Amino acid sequence: MLVLVTAVIAGWTGLWFYAKQLTEDTIVAWQVREARAGRVHICHQQSTSGFPFRIEITCDQAESQIRNLSPPLRITVAGLHAAAQIYQRDLLIAEMAGPMTIADIGRPAMLSADWTLAQASLRGTPAAPERLSVVFEEPKLDDISGPVPVLAAQAKHMELHGRIVEGTVNSNPVVEMVSSVVGGSFPGVHALAQPSIDSDMTAKLRGLKDFAPKSWAARFREIQQAGGSIDIAQARISQGETLAVGSGVLTINANGKLEGQLRLTIAGLDAFLKTIGIENTPPVDRIAGALDRLLPGLGAAARAQAGAGVIAGVNMIGEQTTLEGRRAVAVPLRITDGAMALGPLVIGRVPALF
Fold first, then answer.
1. Which DSSP letter does residue 350 get?
2. pTM score, two decimals?
3. pLDDT tens-digit profile of 72-115?
4. Residue ranges per domain, the chain?
């Protein structure tokens, strides 16, 4: 019996070290593929543990250099910890320790991010992912380009999920993405963006050729050439008493500009304006700033109108309806060659994607 137990222990130990070496070889191969695409990933201090049932990789002072951008970026995090069961190596669980810094290569950091918890799970392998989930608790982003850090954005909770719903990682994958933000605010973007925002979105990305390492500009070009689309099944944003939902299909033209239409339904627009201190006949600039929060670019059109007439104009363009039992207005947001328009009013432009 003792001989049998000793043999089992020796065999399992050998299996663990084999899995350990296989995992390390997989990481090295992934780093090589990424480097060929202009993304260099460095671990300044790496260790492997987890015997007997897990493979755990700990990386202190992790760094990524994104050299295929202009200017190239350098991203650092304090530490990464990833683990997989020895008998289920296609499910990887990871945690990331902050802070994270973002800088142009060779220059001081311009942004710093931190959180109380950051977790990710990956089904598949780094070279052939099938499903990815990322969750942040209490994330915050600071602008540290000046002498004093400035809070740019924060949230109570954020998560992003992505999975392949059609095709395979190597052949025409269709990716479904689900995102959620609870208690998000963006004081660094605009003073009026401080009230917290809750948002949820579900969308599908069609037209990808594969998941080979490449820039997002190259991926968007692939989508355009394949006649693909960005299908927004539903986007929902709430802030105070204001609620907005939207859905639609967007495509990309030969110039890299978005085309398509989204149908927006907005409830509580008047209440939204009151929550930020606007009366029934406020100055035009204050209305414009408020509308910019609801839909970037709408404020520019508002400044050409008179006070409360802007709100009336939005209502006239749209269709009176209800949203979750509340009075609302439904308006089509048309996008032509990147130009966004509500009715005849051009309210903003989306930059080219490639």
1. P
2. 0.79
3. 999 999 999 999 988 887 899 999 999 999 999 999 999 999 99
4. 1-154, 157-354
